[in-house]
Hints:
Elements: H1 3-22, H2 25-40, H3 52-69, H4 74-97
Amino acid sequence: MNRKEALDAAARCVLQDRNASYGGPEESFGIVSDLWTTILRPILKEDASVSASQVAMCMIGLKLGRLIHNPTHEDSITDVIGYGSCLAELATNAREAGGEK
Length: 101
């Protein structure tokens, strides 16, 4: 897979396939952040919560961990690119709203 093919595959995932199945990153990662905050409540500081951006970063970390085991796994490579693009969108939206840093 070359760079264009990798970017095209990630675009299909985040702009069509997964968006249609799970909603956009703010919605789907927001739900996951609420769940992770609940799960991690015993170890989080008071009033702390997991953000949608942190969900994206953790998912990138998960995929990187899998790539350490198998660095040629195209699905994980595609997912890193896709999660990175979702993180970029979340960061842009947060800046525009004056929110999350």
